[in-house]
Amino acid sequence: MIKFFKTIATLEGISFLALLFIGVPLKYTMEMEQVVKIMGPIHGFLFIAYIVLAIMLNSEHKWPTKKFVIICLASVIPFGTFYIENKYFKESANS
């Protein structure tokens, strides 16, 4: 399940960055709202999947509260999920 979480974390991070650095600028500079309309729901789904998987892994692995909170908060910070994947799950690459 950690491998799946890492995949979702990567996709969530990419979708968040695409939304922030491609979708939003295109929406407000070129009035291309369709990019946000497409990327928004995709990112929303991946964000929810990330949080649900974090909750499931927390139940399974009994993480300290601080670690769980950091992992969840990372999903709302640009590049946060990449940091989490590297810091907490790097050693779990083959899991």
From TrEMBL:
Keywords: Cell membrane, Membrane, Transmembrane, Transmembrane helix. It is found in: Cell membrane. Residues 3-88 form the DUF3817 domain. It is a multi-pass membrane protein. The keyword Transmembrane applies. The chain crosses the membrane at residues 7-26, 38-56, 68-84. The keyword Cell membrane applies. InterPro entries: DUF3817_TM. GO terms for cellular component: plasma membrane. This is Membrane protein. The lineage of its organism: Bacteria, Pseudomonadati, Bacteroidota, Flavobacteriia, Flavobacteriales.
